[in-house]
Write a structure and sequence with these properties.
The chain is built from eleven helices and seven strands. The protein is α/β, with parallel strands linked by helices. Helix 7 packs across helix 8 and helix 7 runs antiparallel to helix 10. Helices cover about 40% and strands about 15% of the residues. The protein has a seven-stranded parallel sheet with strand order 1-2-3-4-5-6-7, covered by helices on one side. The protein has a domain of about 130 residues: TIM Barrel (Alpha-Beta Barrel), CATH 3.20.20.
Length: about 290
């Protein structure tokens, strides 16, 4: 599976991907996204019928294909009626331009309202939700994971290594490596307290030694075993990095190792989730 979006390098990412899979289209799953502003024209943003149809047609040309396996809304558009969005996506599915629809970065109520509209009118439902989730970013578990389990929505995890913090390059009391992307990304994404980060990294290091794997391989393997997670999106600057990340599959952490990582990365959740945790008998963690 290859994931991209129209706004990645102003369409160049889709164009490069289209060239790369030419002649072997049936061997890959293509996923792309639209919603964010693409150019300066008034309608080149959002999830209106006009923009979505135009975005899909443009993506098909850049990808050099006649269908998109998974088309996802890059974010929620509160200015367009949900019924319009879901009917447009359904029309695109029926036209054969896209096979499945998904969302990205939605809240729980936004996803559930969309599913309810789809059910009411018989439109195609969301089957995927591209969301941020990592050992140092477990907010997904509070509402989105139970919703996904209930609604049959697979998580497509982005930034599974926590914005590059779980690559194994960070050491307590040591400066960032000169080549680290964290020089550029440390101010992006949710803040992570240093003590919490190093506690998780030390637990990862302990499990890495036990399994004879690397810290990022352990972090990715933990994610792949989580309920509702369908796949994780890994980025790589070099072929070596890509091959290393692919070493996260083909084996599994033990239950004890998972518990060790869970404990190290646990944080107190927002209300009402911390309250519901006190009644696990009636609100169990998704299986």
């Amino acid at each position: 599976m290859f994931d991209t979006a129209d706004v990645y390098s102003s369409g160049a990412s889709e164009a490069v991907l289209g060239e790369a899979v030419k002649g072997r289209r049936d061997q890959v799953i293509l996923s792309t996204k639209a919603t964010f502003r693409f150019d300066e024209s008034p309608n080149s943003i959002g999830s209106s019928r006009y923009h979505l149809i135009r975005a899909v047609d443009s993506a098909l040309k850049r990808l050099q294909t006649d269908y998109i396996d998974l088309f996802q809304l890059h974010g929620f558009d509160a200015r367009t009626p949900v019924a319009e969005v879901m009917s447009t996506l359904d029309d695109l599915v029926r036209a054969g331009k896209i096979r499945y629809v998904g969302a990205s970065n939605f809240s729980g109520w936004q996803l559930m309202k969309s599913q309810a509209i789809a059910d009411r009118y018989g439109y195609s439902r969301y089957v995927a939700h591209q969301a941020y989730y990592s050992l140092i970013g477990r907010d997904y578990e509070s509402e989105l994971m139970p919703l996904a389990a209930d609604q049959g929505i697979g998580a497509v995890v982005w930034s599974p290594l926590g914005w590059g913090r779980l690559t194994g390059k960070l050491k307590r009391g040591q400066p960032l490596p000169e080549t680290s992307r964290l020089h550029k990304t440390s101010e992006q994404g949710p803040p992570v307290p240093d003590e919490y980060l190093y506690r998780v990294l030390e637990a990862l290091q302990a499990v890495a030694i036990e399994t004879e794997k690397s810290i990022p391989q352990v972090a990715l393997n933990w994610l792949l075993q989580r309920p509702t997670v369908a796949t994780v999106l890994v980025g790589a600057r070099t072929e070596e990095q890509l091959r290393h990340n692919l070493g996260a599959v083909g084996w599994n952490l033990t239950k004890e190792q998972v518990k060790q990582l869970d404990a190290a990365s646990a944080v107190r959740r927002a209300y009402p989730y911390w309250h519901q945790e006190g009644f696990e008998e009636r609100n169990p963690f998704p299986a």
